[in-house]
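Next up, sample data:
>
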Amino acid sequence: MSNLVDEIVKGRKTFFIAPDRSLFPQTYLEEYLTLGYECYFIDTDIFLPIEIKIDIILSIFKDSILFFNIDAPLQDNTWPRLISQLQEKYPEAQFGVTYSKRQTPAEKASIEKLYLYTIGIHCGCIQLEYQKKNNFELIERMLYANQAAGRRKNVRAVCTNNCKFQFVSEETGIVQGNLNDISISHFSVTLPEGMAEIAQYEKIQDIAFTIKGLRFHSDAVLYITRNTEAGILYVFAFSTKSGQGGLDFSNKKLLIPKIYEIMVDNCSELLDKLFSSATRQRKNFQKPNLEALTDLNNLIENIDKNEK
C-alpha cells in the first residue's frame, strides 16, 4: 500500500471545489484525462467544513491547482474571505475561480477585479456559459494556460489487483500477472527474473488485458526494463495492429473511462480516509490535527494496519 500512496500523491492535480455539475458535468474530466490533465471534483457536505477539506488537499497534494465555484453556498463564511485566508496561509498555492455567466460586463469585471487584483489569485476566473457544451473548451483553455498537465503527456492510473494481463511467449510459455500502472500509451508490470525473456523493442502480439472488468487485446513493444527489489520492471508501449504507437481507437475509447475510474477510486479512497479521520476528531470535540492527518508515513502505516 505504501507504494500505492506514494504514487497517488505524485503528479500535478486540479481540484474543482463545489462544482456546478449542471454547467460542468463530470464526464468532462474523463476527456481532460486524454489531454494529460488529472482533475477531480470535491463536493461540500454537512459533515466536514470545506475549509478543512481544502487544508487536507493542499497538505498532501503539494503540486495541485484549486478552482472554487464561487456561486456555491458556504456555511459561516464567504468565498472572498475564505480564498483570502487560503492565499495568506498557502502563499505558493495556485487558485482560480469559476462562476456562472453574469448579466452584464460590469458584473464580470467586478468579479475579476476582486479575485485577480484585490485577492490576487493566479489561475484566473472562468465565466461558465449557460450552454454547458461551450464550457469544455473554456475550462480546457484555462487548464492549458496554467500548465495543469505538469511535465507528463499522459496520466497513469496506479493499478491494484483489478488490472491483469496475459500473453504467450515462445520461450517461456504463458506469462501473466498484475499491472503496476496503465495509461492510454503505456503500461508496466513487474515479473520474477526468468519468467519472461523479452528483448528491448521486441513486439508482443495479442496481449490480453482485464482492467476492472473490461477485456481487450492489444499489441505492445517493450520500451524499458529495470531491476527492482520486487523483480524486473517492464515498461511497454501500446502498439496498434498497423504498427503505430498507441491503442487502436476502439480500445482507447473503452479504456479511458476505466483509467479515470481507477484514478478516482484511488484518490477518493485516500481523501475519504483523511476526511473521515477529521470528521471523527470533530465529533469528539477536537480540532482536527492536520499535521498528523496528512503525515504520509503515518497515513501509510494506518492504511497498512487496516488492510491486515
